Amino acid sequence: MKAIFKRELSSYFNSPLIYIILSVFLVISTLFFMMYNMLGASPDLYSVFYSMNTILLFLVPMITMRLFSEEKTQKTDQLLLTSPNTITSVVMGKFLSALVVYWLMISVTILFAIIIAMFTNFDFKSFFVLYTGAILMGAAFIAVGLFVSSAIGNVLTSALATFGLLMVFYYAEMIPLLFGRPEFLTKIFSF
Question: Is-contact 150 68, C-beta < 8 A?
Fold first, then answer.
């Protein structure tokens, strides 16, 4: 698992795509911070985290799109699956590498908390809960992206399918409203 984790993590940072994703997230989250906290004078980060969740629906599929899809495209999936590593260690190595990249991406919010704490009384307990929830939500998003990447052989199709599936999961409570709230759809999507 360590070798796969290291290989995947290094492949993330050898690609310019991850730097673009990190930059986009940094710029947009900083704009949300400026809008809600600096200009809006809000002493908490609830609004920033809520807005970041929507951005993560777009960015996490880009992080996970190449995990298994690229292996299929380059025809290295058989080599990987027949290596001495178990399938569990292969999946966990890829998952943990994507999770580390995701954690690096959202770690900028710690700076937001420090900036707010310098000027006002900041509730670090609620920030810890928000941060933990963001990490767990990101882990769930990454798991969905990893599954879709393993099922689809094309990188772009994998990203689009992951985005579509995440949208369905994220807005599941609103889908029955589109169809007049039939009972069977409400039961399915509330599950």
Answer: yes
Q: Is the Cβ–Cβ distance between 56 and 137 less than 8 Å?
A: yes
| Contact predicate 156/65, CB 8 Å | yes
- In this structure, are residues 70 and 155 in contact, taking their beta carbons and an 8 Å threshold? yes
Distance CA 111, CA 116 (A): 9
Tokens of 191: 């599950």
Q: What is the mean pLDDT of the segment spanning 144-152?
A: 92
Dist. CA 71–CA 153, nearest whole Å: 8
Do the Cβ atoms of 105 and 22 come closer than 8 Å?
yes
Task: Classify residue 43 by its DSSP letter.
Answer: S
How many residues are given for the chain? 191
Going by C-alpha positions, the residue among 25, 13, 2 that lies closest to residue 138 is 25
Q: Among candidates 114, 111, 71, which has minimal Cα distance to 90? A: 71
pLDDT in tens, 54-94: 899 999 999 998 888 887 777 777 777 777 888 888 889 99
